[in-house]
Design brief:
The protein is 57% helix and 6% strand. It has helices spanning 14-29, 36-42, 51-64, 77-83, 88-100, 103-111, 124-132, 139-156, 169-172, 188-200, 203-220, and strands spanning 2-4, 7-8, 34-35, 67-68, 72-75.
Length: 226
């Protein structure tokens, strides 16, 4: 889909049809190459020569980087990670990678989404002119084109989650803190390790001092009978 000279976006959105078709493709052929005719039938197209299949759909999938090849095609590694991610983070990263394969989407992601900012509503047409070149997009056309771009961008990012951060081993167990992920039924050895950790942190001394403090208060203020 041409926005202005030199700036295009995929004709089809990433969800739901393209995502579902790549998932079907990988489910049947894995990452092996397949004839376009077989893939067209799998996706419900009458002919691989139809413009909807060859130009619109395959063109969009190539734009996102989800398929590879020309005569015979196959699901790319990115297409596999997008449709069958091994974790939420991998799926989220695959969305970003697919988005960034589209030059205009990459500019919008880096300028706004990566900074936890939303695309503006009233002034986005002015930002779009600066991105694509003010000479390429006159003001009288910019507002309508901005609505199209903004809507398509949000549709492609509908499943992107900003709050998913890279997983690190340090995140699982911070220094000085006990990992409670397996604490429901600790083994004897693990119980001993927990106690040892608490002793290192001075838990015994803290508890003992607190108990001694309570006892001293009771001596100072004995309970009244009745």
């Amino acid at each position: 889909m041409k926005i202005v000279k030199g700036w295009t976006i995929p004709n089809m959105r990433l969800y739901p049809e393209l995502f579902d078709d790549v998932k079907k493709f990988y489910g049947k052929f894995g990452q092996s190459e397949a004839d376009q005719e077989a893939v067209a039938r799998l996706w419900g197209h009458k002919s691989p020569k139809s413009s909807q299949f060859s130009y619109v759909k395959l063109g969009s999938l190539r734009d996102y980087g989800l398929i590879e090849g020309r005569g015979k095609i196959k699901v790319s590694d990115l297409g596999k990670r997008l449709t069958f991610p091994q974790s939420d983070k991998e799926g989220n990263d695959a969305i970003v990678e697919a988005i960034k394969n589209v030059p205009l989407w990459k500019r919008l992601f880096d300028n706004y989404t990566a900074k936890d900012e939303d695309l503006p509503i009233d002034t986005f047409w002015m930002d779009l002119r600066q991105i694509v070149g003010e000479d390429n997009l006159p003001p009288e056309e910019a507002e309508n084109k901005a609505k199209i771009v903004r809507k398509a961008y949000f549709e492609d990012l509908r499943y992107f989650k900003r709050d998913i951060k890279p997983e690190k081993e340090d995140d699982k167990m911070e220094t000085g803190k006990i990992d409670i992920s397996k604490a429901n039924s600790p083994t004897v050895d693990r119980q001993a390790n927990i106690v040892a950790d608490l002793m290192k942190e001075g838990a015994y001394d803290i508890a003992k001092n607190f108990i001694d403090f309570i006892k001293s208060k009771k001596k100072e203020s004995p309970e009244k009978e009745g």
